[in-house]
Every structure is written in C-alpha cells, then in structure tokens.
Specification:
Blueprint: H1 2-28, H2 35-63, H3 68-110, H4 116-140, H5 147-169, H6 177-206, H7 227-236, H8 244-263
Helix pairs in contact: 1-3, 1-4, 1-5, 1-6, 1-7, 2-4, 3-4, 3-6, 3-8, 6-7, 6-8
Length: 282
C-alpha cells in the first residue's frame, strides 16, 4: 500500500499541477469560457490511461505462460527502469516545464485556437496516467502487494494529490514544491531499489542467479507477511531474510540511481525571462 500511495501521489500531483497551470493561465487571459476544453482533455486523458491499464492486463495473460515468476521479475525490472528514467528526466527538465507549457498556451491564444489547451491537458494527464499504470504493474508483481492494498493505496494517493493541487491553486502556497518533489524522489528511489532487489530474488528462485544463505533473519522481530512488514516491504523493500545478492543489488541501485537523481548537475536552467513571482514549478 505504501509504495502504490507514493507512486500515485507523485504522478497524480504532477498531472494536477499541469491542469492547475492551464486553468490559471486561462483565468489570467480572461478565457474562462475555454475551461471546458481543459476539463474534457483531462477526462479523456484519464479514460485513455485506464484503457492502457486494461490493455496491459489483457496482454499480460499470454506472457504468464512463460512462467509467472519470470514474467514478474521482468515486470519489476521494467518498472525500475521506468521509475529511474522518470526521476532523471524530471531532474533534468522540471524547472523548464512551466515555461514550455506557457509558450504552447501563448501560441494557442495567438492563433485563436484555444481548443489546443484541451490537447495539452489530455497529453499531460495521459502521460502521467500511463506511467502510473506501468509503475503499479511492477509493484503488483511483488507477492507482498495485493490487489486490495494496492488499490487502496492508489486511491488514497490520487485523492491526496488532488487535494494538494486544489489547495495550491486556491492560494494556499505553504507547500514547498521543490521540497515536495525532493522528498517524493527519495521515496521513489527506495521503492525502485526494493523492486530491483525483489527482481534479483525472483531470479535467484528461478536459478538464473546462484543461491546463497540469508545474511540475517529478523523474522522474529518483523515478519514479511505481517501488516507492518508487508507495508515496509512494498515501500522500502524490507526483507526479513535477505540474501547477499539482494542486499548488494539494493545498495548498488541506491548509490547509482541516487547519484543520477541528485548528484548530476545537468538540470536545465530556468531562463531569466521565464521567471516570475508566484511561479509554480517543481
């Protein structure tokens, strides 16, 4: 539940910020009559994201014939790649996103084609929704993330993101967006590390990697199948009896992805002309 909450909170909040920027722009240029395009685009983006989820579920059926554990391991590693790429991309381009978005909106206004704002809303919501589907697909491949716990965490994440987005664009700017994205980036980092470690464990179980004895056993203190243990397993990759390859893989991913997220200095600078008081950007 914890991991699905973090993923949906982050992705849904990014979508809420995008919609809030578009709504705010239309309000500033006295084009509130065009709100319906944004609402329609966002709704269609959500429907398309759900369609992606249905398609992924349908297409994953034939893959199970290859072996559920092997498919689960592949899905976990795919989710790790996507989460890592997403974190890196946001690190590189987040500060320029609002300026790029507003240039697209200015072009739409200049050409009197404000229906384009609906397309902007659709692509933004669909992108975040499709990423969420793929991330959750990987998380649900873990034995400790059940359908009901994953669904409840996802619903709670979306609801929290909607509330935060509404509060920001109704004037409540106490939330520091850079701090929010930094914290959620760290949480996504440990979620991905847990997925990577779980994938290694699946490969060990399938015989693709050499088996080894557990490095420690904390079952008596906190079992994987307990409520708290299952929550921590999904969120930070907790294992009561981890093997050396799992621990090494977890630590190696944290170091490598942590440097990629926070150590590189390739972030896109914000043009001075694009900076204005009251900018809302990650």
């Amino acid at each position: 539940m914890g991991a699905t909450f973090v993923v949906t909170l982050r992705e849904a909040f990014e979508a809420a910020l995008l919609l809030g920027i578009v709504y705010s722009y239309l309000d500033r240029v006295a084009a509130r009559a065009q709100y319906h395009w944004v609402t329609l685009g966002g709704a269609l983006g959500l429907v398309a994201s759900v369609a992606v989820g249905v398609a992924v579920t349908f297409l994953s059926g034939p893959l199970i014939e290859l072996g559920p554990d092997l498919v689960a391991a592949g899905v976990m590693f795919l989710a790790v790649v996507l989460i890592t790429w997403h974190g890196w991309w946001m690190r590189q381009h987040a500060r320029a996103l609002k300026g790029d978005l507003q240039r697209r909106l200015d072009d739409a206004r200049a050409t009197q084609r404000l229906w384009i704002v609906g397309l902007v809303a659709f692509t933004g919501v669909f992108r975040e929704g499709a990423e969420t589907v793929l991330f959750l697909w990987g998380l649900m491949s873990q034995a400790n993330v059940t359908g009901w716990s994953g669904m409840s965490g996802g619903v709670l994440g979306v609801a929290t993101a909607a509330a935060l987005g509404w509060a920001i664009f109704r004037g409540g700017r106490q939330l520091s967006l850079p701090r929010f994205f930094a914290i959620t980036s760290v949480l996504l980092l440990v979620v991905a590390a847990g997925l990577f470690s779980s994938g290694i464990g699946r490969l060990i179980g399938l015989g693709y990697l050499p088996a080894s004895d557990p490095l420690w056993d904390t079952t008596a203190l906190l079992h994987d199948d307990s409520l708290v243990g299952g929550f921590l397993a999904g969120l930070v990759g907790y294992r009561a009896r981890p093997t050396a390859p799992e621990v090494i893989g977890y630590a190696a991913y944290l170091v490598a992805a942590g440097w990629l997220f926070f150590g590189s200095r390739g972030a896109t600078p914000v043009p001075r002309a694009a900076r204005s008081q009251g900018d809302v950007r990650p």
